[in-house]
Amino acid sequence: MTGHLIEIIVLTKTSYTSGDVIADRRADYARSLARDGEFAAAADLMSQALELVPDWAAGWDLLGDYHDRQGDVAGAISAWRHLEALDDAGVFGARLKLAVHGAGPAGEGTAVSYVEALFDQYAPKFENSLVGRLGYRVPEMLDDLVAAEMARLGIDRFARGLDLGCGTGLMGERLRGKVGHLEGIDISAAMIAETARKGIYDRLDKAELVAALSARRADADLVTAADVFIYCGALQPVLAALVPALMPGGLVAFSLEAHEGEEAVFLRPSLRYAHGIKATRDAVVLSGLEILRFETVVLRLDRGAPINGILVVARKPPIDVSAANDGADAGGDVAA
């Protein structure tokens, strides 16, 4: 799953055209008005366009966005209800948009089709926007923590690393010198294409995160996920798939957006999930990992405001604890 932060964008890539010339012309005018901040007028024009092409999913997405930006929540919800009915695959993220506005459940899993389409659309301008405008430093910060733990634990080099949500390779560039064989996994084909040009990874796969992890068995001694789990909701299912993919003694390093409330996780208006600090600690420990580093930091800026987050480095126990316990129960000797 692509592991980096982006601003909310309206997903029109899958259907720029409605198939009707007049409707398209009105939609173009509406976009122009929206760029000038005239969202009420833009919504009116989009409504006119949708009278001509009522089954145009991308049009309903735009209409919902224009209503939302002018503060017409009821209008936005109505538009996204139409969108939800038309978009069976969930490419436009109608369920998430409704959930943010209290009109439906957020769910705890990844909205796979939405995330894939989002990053496919964003791939060409990803790095310029993220690093250049938003002050994004998560790969650098995670890499610093990993390097510190390598020094403390006496690890010279990792044999096999797995970079989840590799995106355009921002994390992989940092890891390359530390890992003998480096693999990248991303849900977005466009992101994979972007990073393939750089020659950072020994292997790249397009796959959904949990499915990719579930197919592996204890073959990686380093797993990283820079801003990946913010699209996954509940942390426990992800960690349940991740831990078996780690070799005993292997490290995992990941980031999350943080919140100070009691909720384990909630969906932000950005359509990203924020995780509770205490709940995150508990989830990591319950997954069987040993926490090595747990830091709260500013991840980046969003419209000038800092986005607080959590950086975690954890280790899978170097020995099979359950096997050791079994031996002790059976009366066998267990090495200290």
Short note summarizing the structure:
The protein is built from 14 helices and 9 strands. With 336 residues, it is of the alpha/beta class. It folds into 2 domains: 13-113, Tetratricopeptide repeat domain (Serine Threonine Protein Phosphatase 5, Tetratricopeptide repeat), CATH 1.25.40; 136-323, 3-Layer(aba) Sandwich (Rossmann fold).
Task: Summarize this structure as a short list of keywords or feature phrases.
336 residues; alpha/beta; Serine Threonine Protein Phosphatase 5, Tetratricopeptide repeat; Rossmann fold; 2 domains; 43% helix; elongated; disordered N terminus; disordered C terminus
Task: Report on this structure.
The chain has 336 residues and is α/β, with parallel strands linked by helices. The protein folds into two domains: 13-113, Tetratricopeptide repeat domain (Serine Threonine Protein Phosphatase 5, Tetratricopeptide repeat, Alpha Horseshoe), CATH 1.25.40; 136-323, Vaccinia Virus protein VP39 (Rossmann fold, 3-Layer(aba) Sandwich), CATH 3.40.50. It is built from 14 helices and nine strands. The chain has helices spanning 21-35, 39-52, 57-69, 73-86, 94-100, 112-122, 126-134, 138-153, 170-175, 189-196, 209-214, 235-242, 277-286, 321-329; strands at 158-164, 179-186, 203-206, 220-225, 246-259, 265-267, 273-276, 290-302, 305-315. Strands 1, 2, 3, 4, 5, 6, 7, 8 and 9 form a nine-stranded mixed beta sheet that branches. A hairpin with a 5-residue loop joins strand 6 and strand 7. Helix 1 runs antiparallel to helix 2 (39-52), helix 3 (57-69) packs antiparallel against helix 4 (73-86) and helix 4 (73-86) runs antiparallel to helix 5. The longest helix is centred in the middle third of the chain and has 16 residues, at 138-153. The radius of gyration is 22 Å and the shape is elongated. The model is unreliable at 1-14 and 327-336 (pLDDT under 50).
